[in-house]
Amino acid sequence: MKLTRVGRSTAAMASAAALCATMGFASTAAMVAMPVPQAYADTYSDLLDAQARQQSSAAREQELRDKLAGVSADLADKIVELDTLTNTTIPAAQKAVTSANDAAAQAQDEADALAARLAAAQKDKETLEAEIKKTGKDYDDAHAAVAQMARDSMHGSNASDVMSVVTGSTSTKQFVNSMQTRDALSRTESNAASDAAVSLNTSMNRGERLAAIEEQITQLKAKADDALAAAQDAAADAKAKRDSLESLRKEGESKRAELESAQSQLKSDAAKQAAQTVLIASEVDSLNSQYAAEQAAAAQKPTVGPQGTTDSGSTGGNTGGSTNNNAANTTPTTPSTPSTNTGGSTNGGSASNSGNSGSSSSSSSSSGQGTSNGDSGNAYAGGQCTWWAYNRRKQMGIGTPSFLGNGGQWYQTAPSYGLRVDHNPQVGAALSFYPGQDGADGTYGHVAVVEAVYSDGTFQISEMNVQGLYVVSYRTLTNLGQYWFVH
């Protein structure tokens, strides 16, 4: 059926009114949709993980005790206790800390979001109260919008009738009733009015909207208070777990010092190697904790200038961590024999190792190990393998040039600084992996530090950035003459 001019105008008014009502309703619905704080509990998978750790710990203990056969029960118990603490108890505590920190952060985010929504609702209330002071509580925005539409678009005698209805009504209800009962309007216009009535009945005057906002504020306030309490509880739980982890690490340091002083009681090579492995694992955990704390503290400080990142094994020209990974810093994929060896004899013996009690051979000279030549401080990129190798050797009392290049270049550039380079592992020596060797980066290579050398041809290394920046890890390798050691 074709609409008359008045019919089209009435339909437009109804659409405008429906739009006003819909917008008002959507705003209210948005305030109602509040997130519910989540509860945190151990899951079945957590229980399975705990069970797996327990079984792994039992198997690990048995293997360790087999290697400690013949060792006094008291000393063997101390070694096992430190191993369990380092490899089972502390990792489980660290996992709990990570989970608690995440839960605390999420709870705080939820509390902050609810606080922001509460503040927004309170601001809406203030704005609406200011409008009510000007217009009164009965002012109806939907009715006002329809009336303005009528004033702007209606002309002619038939329109005047509708105009009278619109502008003469004092409320939405009166307007709808008038639109439905006037005999002067056609059936099409009456149908349009009925549609408008459905929509307009969902609208509110300002007084009603103020009451709705106040109700939402009450609900939001209760939820915000609950979320804040939950965030505070989660933060307290995270702190308790962090304190517990710190206490475990201090216990580990105490046990490690006690065990180091008792190593002379170990007679067999198997027992010495087992104890040394336990000691290194404990020390690595302590160093990882130390570096994590340093990085957390550094993250709180503003940085000056760009901070570059690089792949494992790359080096930087400053201590800020920026690097220059251009073509000139790459190494060939096939190792070459160093052109010079001015460091002295190439023996496989062990130098004295300040701060390290590894069970390594002491029958040989340390000639050619370390140099002050070219050592102007750690110029390698922070958190990289090269940065760690320089620092670790310094801890051992061994000097290292500041610009040996990427990890895979050390064995090539070291001789020019007077360092001995050969295929024989020695405590404190830097193991320079050429690109791709044993998982080293395919472009930059890798470098590690020898922590202990054993009589069966194996040796222990510590290394950084295999598992992430500033993360120290260790592994045992077998020497078949395939590695280059920088002494």
From TrEMBL:
InterPro entries: CHAP_dom, Papain-like_cys_pep_sf
Domain Peptidase C51: residue ranges: 360-487
Keyword Transferase listed: no
Keyword entries, A-Z: Coiled coil, Signal
Compositional bias of kind Low complexity: 298-313, 321-377
Any coiled-coil regions, as ranges: 97-138
Ranges of compositional bias, category Basic and acidic residues: 242-259
Region (Disordered): 242-264, 298-377
Signal sequence region: 1-29
Name of the featured protein: Amidase
